[in-house]
Amino acid sequence: MTGANAILERIDKTRKEKADLDMKATLKELSFHIGGHILHTLFWGNLAPPGKSPPRPEKILAAAIDKEFGA
User: Fold this and answer.
1) Of the residues 3, 4, 46, 55, which has the maximum number of CB atoms within 10 A of its CB?
2) Alpha-carbon span 19 to 27, nearest angstrom
3) pLDDT tens digits, residue range 40-57?
4) CA–CA distance from 8 to each of 5, 11, 59, 64 (Å)?
5) Residues with Cβ < 8 Å from 8, sequence gap 6 or more?
6) Residue 33 host element (H or E)
7) Vertex 54, ends 49 and 55: CA angle to 5°?
């Protein structure tokens, strides 16, 4: 999140200074950092020891997973 926070600070500073910013490149970079954070959170959360893992999906998602991979 350090990278994402730095980009958000840069955007805020640019707005306050009314300076120009390449928003397309900046948002692409922000997307990369936030996406990486989300993927790492999912990855490590799924490798958690029993009892500390996220709750099992329910309803439609659980049925689709069970159908595809077995219960």
Assistant:
1) 4
2) 16
3) 888 887 777 777 777 778
4) 5, 5, 37, 37
5) 30
6) helix 23-46
7) 120
Residue in 37, 30, 28 with CA at minimum distance from that of residue 10: 30
Residues 18 and 21: their CA atoms lie apart, in Å, by: 9
In the chain, % helix, strand, coil (3-state, to 5) comes to 70, 0, 30
Q: Which two tokens stand for residue 69?
A: 């991979």
Residue 20 near residue 26 (C-beta atoms within 8 A) = no
Any idea what the Cα angle at residue 35 is, between residues 31 and 36, rounded to 5°? Answer: 120
Cβ neighbours for 45, distance < 8 A, ≥ 6 positions apart:
53, 54
